[in-house]
Amino acid sequence: MMPEKEQLGLDSEMKRRRNGETWEFEDDIDDTSVSVSDGVLLGLDGGTTSTICICMKMVYFSHSQLQSLPILSRAVAGCSNHNSVGEIAARETLEQVMADALSKCGSKRSSVRAVCLAVSGVNHPTDQQRILSWLRDIFPSNVRLYVQNDAVAALASGTMGKLRGCVLIAGTGTIAYGFTEDGKEARAAGAGPVLGDWGSGYGISAQALTAVIRAHDGRGPSTMLTTSILQTLGLSSAEELIGWTYADPSWARIAALVPVVVSCAEAGDEVANKILLESAQELASSVKAVVGRLGLCGQDGKDAFPLVMVGGVLEANTRWDVGKEVMKCISKYFPGVLPIRPKVEPAVGAAWLAWNFFMKEYNRELCSS
Amino acid sequence: MMPEKEQLGLDSEMKRRRNGETWEFEDDIDDTSVSVSDGVLLGLDGGTTSTICICMKMVYFSHSQLQSLPILSRAVAGCSNHNSVGEIAARETLEQVMADALSKCGSKRSSVRAVCLAVSGVNHPTDQQRILSWLRDIFPSNVRLYVQNDAVAALASGTMGKLRGCVLIAGTGTIAYGFTEDGKEARAAGAGPVLGDWGSGYGISAQALTAVIRAHDGRGPSTMLTTSILQTLGLSSAEELIGWTYADPSWARIAALVPVVVSCAEAGDEVANKILLESAQELASSVKAVVGRLGLCGQDGKDAFPLVMVGGVLEANTRWDVGKEVMKCISKYFPGVLPIRPKVEPAVGAAWLAWNFFMKEYNRELCSS
């Protein structure tokens, strides 16, 4: 893709020196001392709350052994959603967290075989292209680069890097994403709170806050949520909620009230119960839309397909289990649904994806040569 | 309230000189040249979009002649909601717009008899106290000062300064506010979009945007809103709406889509129609809550009471008339409801309020002396 740049001799020294100190650590690594002769993989999960980069040993073997691929290092940074922090800050965070992961395990960019960047805010092919174009400037030209929405890494974390099936994420936000074996993809929700992600942690909490205001106004039934939420936030009246939401409208701060809603529902509060039930139905409707569009359930609607479930709202290990309720709604439509709760984090899924993508190209090239 | 300050001699020179150039124009006004011997009133309507200050001639006569009180000047400034722009910026905007109004008609602070500041974001007695405390530093100590929520000025604009009845505002945001003759007050909604002001212009547009995303996802029926909204915004796909909302989440920008929703509903789009119908019901439920709590409708629910209706959503002079639909919902419950669409702007209502408050105190003092 970049013959001109290589001809200009940009490929080594300039890439090494970009961004000041970010890559300086590479000077101290002796090429012959690199312990990973086959190279390494980078898997990156970039979300609105944090960004995690996993460095994994590259091994050329069959997919079934993927789970035993050793993790060499793990680095953590802040938000890398370009919609939230802007393009430049997002780019710097992503570059730094990759440098940190490599530095931690004594590797450098020349050892990297493939990178999978799975970041939230990648909603359109143009987002992908924009990220790929600056990513190409960081790594040597033989490194394979893949850019995906972060939901794809979450799916891969439950399917061992295979892009087949559906993933439902419900944390602060929510999205459903799916792939067929032959590469068709579809998504639902994941558009942010203005555009109606109602089953998300933010959505659940915003509805609970609304219920408190409605009860106070006389527009809605009284609810246990009033006392519980005001107490949790250290406020003395429902009017004070207005100032509280204006003071800092960050979605994560509002989404943090989900456990209060769950507790009230468990204690028998009808309003809280209704919010959780409707949220579960919302989440299920996202999955149904994706599965239906991709035909993951087969023509008779009964084929088996994996549904990877990720995020705080679905993991809540409580009596009122939103994840279980979502499954109940979905299995009515698709009896073949196979719920998976991943044992590894999405960044590992991203590294597995990098491995899968790389091996597919590698094998194709082997066959054609 | 402030004897200490007056004893310290702060009342004239320091007040004159505060905030640099704001009040410098007063130096050029000769006290004897002030044309308004009885003094002036200031009425101020401070919203999230703009702030308007009216300077009105003070006249000591009966209430029935209030409508003929001459407006001496009108000044306009930006947002003065402290929740949106912060306390300091809000204060500066409010002070400047009052100075502008006085300067425009050649009056100064010593001519002011009463000020009514009706500003959005006044949701709690502490908000009122905070504003009063800095307002007292601006004006001579004999000036009567009143601070209200901006909804109160809107009510007064329809009732000629009398605080009796209910007002429903539906512009970018929405609020219902009511007063009884004996001073009881109640409000509903007006809590911002996070807290569920669904009948507002923002609410209507956000639901329309959500409907577009849902249709695109396969979670909802297809709708004319897709083509109409994308065309209005110059976007080519529903995914691009995500970036569009993130780029600038200001409520007014989103609320500006209301006319598109109305057009689609008029053209027979079911989704748009449902959004408007439900929004009208939401707005009606705010009014019902206020009227019910205050008993404005009397014990049998049939007493007459004024309902002042204000704001772009209710004024839309189109075939699909949200205001008319709201009235239909309300009059089912309260046949005595008397809709009023004010002919003057809320800032005039605020000035009338200042007159009413002032005259009440003035007459009480006359009687007791």
UniProtKB/TrEMBL annotation, chains A, B:
- InterPro entries of this UniProt entry? ATPase_BadF, ATPase_NBD, Euk-type_GlcNAc_Kinase
* A Pfam family recorded for this sequence: BcrAD_BadFG
What range(s) does the ATPase BadF/BadG/BcrA/BcrD type domain occupy? 42-354
**Naturally occurring in which organism (per UniProt):** Pisum sativum
GO MF annotations, alphabetized = N-acetylglucosamine kinase activity
| Matching Gene3D superfamilies | 3.30.420.40
Question: Which first-to-last residue range defines the signal peptide?
Answer: none
Domain of life the protein comes from: Eukaryota
| Name of the protein | N-acetyl-D-glucosamine kinase
What's the EC number here? 2.7.1.59
